[in-house]
Amino acid sequence: MEKECTEEELTFRKNLQFSKAPCVSLTAKAYEEIELIIQRAKKEDFSAEEKILLAEYALDFAMQAADRALLSSLKAIDAQMTQQEQDEKSFP
Q: By Cβ atoms counted within 10 A, which residue in 24, 37, 57, 73 is the most buried?
C-alpha cells in the first residue's frame, strides 16, 4: 500500500507540475503544503491510539475532499451546459 501511495503521489505531482492552468497551480501549492505537514507528522512517534485518531481524521479529510471534488464537477457540468444553452441562443 505504501508503494502504491508513493507511485500515485508521484503521478499526481507530475500532472500538477505540467498543467498550464493557473487554478491548477494554486491547487498544487496547497497540496505541497499539506504534504509537508503529513511528512512532518510521519516523523513523530505516535502511540497506537494517536495513530488510530490520525487515520480517522485522514478518512474524514478524504471524504471532504471527495465531496468537494463532486461539487466542483457538478458546478463544471452546470457551467458547461449554461454555456451551450447560451451558444445555441446566439446561433439559432
A: 24
Could you tell me the pTM of the whole model?
Answer: 0.72
CA distance 62 to 89: 41
Instruction: With CA atoms as reference, report the closest residue to 14 among 31, 1, 2.
Output: 31
Nearest to 63 by CA among 75, 51, 71: 71
Strand ranges (E), 1-86: none
Residue 35 DSSP symbol: H
56-73 residue pLDDT tens? 998 999 999 999 999 999
Task: Give the closest residue to 14 by CA, choosing from 6, 76, 72, 63.
Answer: 6
